[in-house]
Amino acid sequence: MKYSNVYFIGIGGIGMSAIARFCKLKGASVSGYDRTPSDLTAALEKEGIPVHYEDRPDLLPEDTADTLVIYTPAVPDDFSELKTARQKGYKVIKRAMMLGELTKGESCLAVAGTHGKTTTSTLVAHMLTESGLGCSAFLGGISRNYGTNMLVSDIPTVVVEADEFDRSFLQLHPSIAAITAMDADHLDIYGDLEHVQQAYREFASQVSETLIIKHGLPITSEEVSAKIFTYHFDNPAADFHSANLRLSPDGHYTYDLVYPGGVLSDIRVGAIGWVNVENSIAAAAICLCYGLDAQKARHAIGSFQGVKRRLEVHVNKPGICYIDDYAHHPKELQSAISSVRQIFPGRKICGIFQPHLYTRTRDFAGEFASVLGALDKLILLDIYPAREQPIPGVSSELIFKDTDCKEKVLLHRDQLMDYLKDEPVDVLLTLGAGDIDRFVPEITALLENR
User: Fold this and answer.
1) What does DSSP assign to residue 269?
2) How far apart are CA 1 and CA 27, in angstroms?
3) Residue 179 and residue 200: Cα distance in Å, rounded?
4) What distances in angstroms separate CA 27 from CA 4, 40, 44, 422, 445, one per listed residue?
5) What are the phi and psi torsion angles at 7 (to 5°)?
């Protein structure tokens, strides 16, 4: 490491914590701030990384010349620690720039997309690790196989989740990349879908060797220098697609992968749901283009346990199933709900959804209302604001009033557990990217004891 001290403002973020762990492993003295304690910050503290939860500029390391300050764009410019670091002459960079620096000189395998990127990139890292090839990885979720969001290897290959928020992924120049989706999101940053898609095209133009895109996405060979392959869940027009798909009673799919090299038969996907079939096809495309042996790829997909908070099953016993998922965009909700519906046909599915961000709720209220109508019952919570201030007239009521879900109830966050005590449960989903995951242990205990 060039700096002896690395200080993180927003250290508890999933991407920030991965870089913090890496810096600690490389011998730097690492510390930082986050807004609230969480499982991630608790894990960092357990690993010997001090974390505090108040805006304390006095806790910045004293040596300005030998300290790197990394901040997340979710932190406002008037945050005292950030202002002080700039005023006193510390080297201050965004997380995305640091990730770009860490991937320079490496063979970078990146996964971008409005949804699917976390599971797909985590599966790529697992496939390379499980096969013995090895890689380092900076992931946007906690791998259930390894219990971390960061892997380190001496092999000069690094797998990254390429985040479109704040155009962060434009700091990356991958040798191989996949783009899973280009839907409208982060409109507080981009303004409209056209600018979202333009950013993805710019990212695609920075890929040097191979670009794998979901079939139908608006990127053409004239816009990129890399060789393009397409993938799809089951469309035979795509270069990589599934055939002979079958679902077992435990929710796991098995399929044959049709790809330019032939057919790879009987791939059992270790993570449940049809959406993970599609994610595994994208991951297989990256790894096969990278040079991974096809049979090793098949084995690794089968041993993949998934990512925390991505269709993560917490209770599964006769008559009661409870699954938690990070879905916070209408397309992600649609994928999660339809995946669960296919696994549990004919059962009553109740979803607890916590909207994430006032701007996203404002921009997609109609789409949220529509996709949540696929539930048999909806429990809708208040908006989780994250980095945002309230917007007048924007609340969960915008979604609630327009959804045609058969049964629906609007609750404050602190009313949820009392409500669930007497609520009959068949299949229950918690959905959202805010702090709804804090309820998971309590809900799990409640349902396990029924």
Assistant:
1) P
2) 7
3) 8
4) 8, 20, 15, 51, 40
5) -115, 130
Determine the residue type at 235: N
- CATH architecture of structural domain 5-93: 3-Layer(aba) Sandwich (3.40)
Residue 395 vs residues 6, 186, 364, 384: alpha-carbon distances, Å: 38, 18, 12, 10
Q: What is the pLDDT of residues 305-350, one digit of tens each?
A: 999 999 999 999 999 999 999 999 999 999 999 999 999 999 999 9
Residue 17 has pLDDT above 80, yes or no: yes
Considering the four listed CATH numbers 3.40.1160.10, 3.40.1190.10, 3.30.70.2740, 3.40.50.720, the one that applies to the domain covering 104-303 is 3.40.1190.10
pTM, full prediction: 0.91
Conformation bin of residue 233: beta by default, left when phi > 0, alpha when psi is -120 to 50: alpha
Q: What is the assigned CATH class of domain 312-448?
A: alpha beta
pLDDT of residue 446: 97
Question: How far is residue 82's CA from residue 91's CA, in Å, rounded to a whole number?
Answer: 11
**Is residue 85's pLDDT more than 90?**
yes
Q: Give Dmax over CA atoms of the chain in angstroms.
A: 63
- Residue 118 CA: distances (Å) to CA of 44, 124, 125, 166, 314: 20, 10, 11, 17, 20
The Cβ of residue 417 has, within 10 Å, a number of other Cβ atoms equal to 12
Where are the domains positioned within the chain? 5-93, 104-303, 312-448
Q: DSSP of 381-430, one letter per residue?
A: PPPB-TTPPP-TT-STHHHHTT---SEEEE--GGGHHHHHHT---SEEEE
Q: Two tokens at 27?
A: 């011998």
- d(C-alpha 327, C-alpha 333), whole Å: 5
Q: What is the rounded (10 degree) CA torsion for 67, 68, 70, 76?
A: 60
